Structures are given as C-alpha cells and as structure tokens.
TrEMBL record:
Example GO biological process: integrin-mediated signaling pathway
Protein name (Swiss-Prot/TrEMBL): FYB2 protein
Keywords: Phosphoprotein
Domain Helically-extended SH3: 55-121
Gene Ontology cellular-component annotations: plasma membrane
InterPro entries per UniProt: FYB1/2-like, hSH3, SH3-like_dom_sf
Name of the gene this protein is made from: Fyb2
Keyword Acetylation recorded: no
Source species: Phainopepla nitens (Phainopepla)
Pfam family, one: hSH3
Amino acid sequence: RGKEEKYKVRMPKLRMVKEYVDKRKSINDVDRNVFKFKKSSEEKSKKMDKEEKLFRETFMYRKEIRVLATATAERSVPSARRADLPLTAGEQLDVIEAVQGHAAICRNAQGRYGYVLVEHLNFR
C-alpha cells in the first residue's frame, strides 16, 4: 500500500463556470425527456385506440365521440358488470353520452369506457 500511495498522481479538479454546468445539465435532461415522452405517448395512443374499438363494439356506438361534460367521482365503486366502469373517489371522468335512466356513458383518464350511475358523479 505504501508504494501505491507514494506514486499516486493527484490531478487537480478543473473548475467550470456554474452557468455552463447548469446549461449542460438542462440540455441533457431535455434530450432524455423527449425520448421517454415519445415512447410513452405512442404506447398510450395505441392503448386508447384499442379501448375505443372495444367500446364501439360493446356499446354499438357509431356516432362521433364527443365529451358533453366533465365530472368527478364522489365515491369508489367496483364494477358489477363488464359494461360498468369501476370508479375511484375523486377520479375525473368525461361524460360521453347521457343514457335514458340513471346512467351515463363515461371515459376515465386511462381511456376505459363504461356505464356510471349519475348519483355517483359530481358535476361542477
């Protein structure tokens, strides 16, 4: 050990201007975020298309999908049927169509569609 420490050469730290270091870090972060964003958005769009296709087949919905209103789920409700949309309290939902009776067709943030009882929704 003594010989290794004796011949060890210590290099001085090169000092950089702080602004340059910050700028370099921000440029590198932006490049990384751009690539991650593209990948996740492609996956998300494929999943949304798949969910929309499943929705159109299940509900026999041929019209254009338009959001009539936005609502918040008041309480968590599990789905009893496949056509029902499971809810979590505070979740934001897009109301697609108000069906006769006490139900509405809604879409959640993940792109899933289903029936939701109007009594579980809070319209603001």
